[in-house]
Amino acid sequence: MLEVNAPVGNIFLDEGFDELKKGNFERLKLSRMELEKRILRRKGDRGTDIGLKLDPGVKLRHGDVINNGDMKIVVEQLPEKVISIRLKTKNMVDVMVLLGHIIGNRHRPISIQREEISFPIQADAEKEVFTKLFQSIINDIEMRVEEQVFSPSTGADVHEH
């Protein structure tokens, strides 16, 4: 079993992993919740038994590289359902404040990318719930459900219910 205390880098953020970008590597596929854990045991997609016993303060992220001797293993976060929202008109401060207030009251982590805010959901049916919650601003926003690798914005890390 391969025991891992910390990643050796990240395929997306660090140089020196050009060979890995060609795709010839084993993958350790984990959910966002599993990435939060310090101790975990899983198998890679090629059968390598991997035991995570991460050093204090170390968290795995999408794209982290684990060293297995000559072979490297890349951590891949599994996509999850999210609601993505975009304002139909820019600079609508009242709509932005209400949007933040409603999502915040549901204790959802958020991701802000360009002019879009996203947050994870468990099922497509939650779109109906949020449509009702956003009733007063529904004509001012575009909302869709999609699957993506969700990474909360730093500083917007909240506990989920």
Automatic annotation (TrEMBL):
SUPFAM superfamilies per UniProt: Urease metallochaperone UreE, N-terminal domain (SSF69287)
Lineage of origin: Archaea, Nitrososphaerota, Nitrososphaeria, Nitrosopumilales, Nitrosopumilaceae
GO biological process, one term: protein-containing complex assembly
Organism: Nitrosopumilus ureiphilus
Pfam short name (any one): UreE_N
GO CC terms: cytoplasm
GO MF annotations in UniProt: nickel cation binding
Key word Signal present: no
The protein's name: Urease accessory protein
Domain UreE urease accessory N-terminal: 10-74
Compartment(s) of residence: Cytoplasm
InterPro entries: UreE (IPR012406), UreE_C_dom (IPR007864), UreE_N (IPR004029), UreE_N_sf (IPR036118)
Record has DNA repair as a keyword: no
UniProt feature coiled coil, ranges: none
Alphabetical keyword list: Chaperone, Cytoplasm, Nickel
